[in-house]
């Protein structure tokens, strides 16, 4: 499952994953859509942008934390444009198995 407000990045990742044999069950542009998609069909993993609409602050991170709490079997990989220790720390202070945080420039 993919969640990023940048259509180009989201669809590019979907294509790369599909080309490698993975199934992308949903590709959404905001955290609200992500949580609805996960509730409808919990994925094995979700790739989530930290900053998404409407405020472009931490909606994706908050969604990732909620996913980890409600669906602990779902792995999350959070992508960020900026080094944000606060975000990484918050995500990684709970159970760290199946959790990742990467800078988009490093992907």
Overview of the structural elements:
This protein is an alpha/beta fold and 107 residues long. It has one domain (2-106): Rossmann fold, CATH 3.40.50. It is 40% helix and 19% strand. It has a five-stranded parallel β-sheet with strand order 2-1-3-4-5, sandwiched between helices. Helix 2 packs parallel to helix 3.
Layout of SSEs?
Layout: E1 2-3, H1 7-19, E2 27-28, H2 31-40, E3 45-49, H3 59-70, E4 75-80, H4 85-92, E5 99-103
Parallel strand pairs: 1-2, 1-3, 3-4, 4-5
Helix pairs in contact: 2-3
In short:
The chain contains four helices and five strands, in the order βαβαβαβαβ. By secondary structure, it is an alpha/beta fold.
Descriptors:
alpha/beta, Rossmann fold, 4 helices, 5 strands
CATH-scheme architecture: 3-Layer(aba) Sandwich
**Helix vs. strand class:** alpha/beta
Overall tally of domains: 1
Number of strands: 5
Order of helices and strands: EHEHEHEHE
CATH C-level category: Alpha Beta
DSSP summary: helix tally:
4
Q: Poorly predicted ranges (pLDDT <50, ≥5 residues)?
A: none
CATH homology group = Response regulator
How are the strands ordered across the major sheet? 2-1-3-4-5
In CATH, the topology is named Rossmann fold
Strand content: 15-25%
Q: Biggest sheet, in brief? A: 5 strands, parallel
Computed CA radius of gyration, to the nearest angstrom: 12 Å
Distance between the termini: 17 Å
Average pLDDT, all residues: 90
Percent of residues in helical segments? 40-55%
Shape: globular
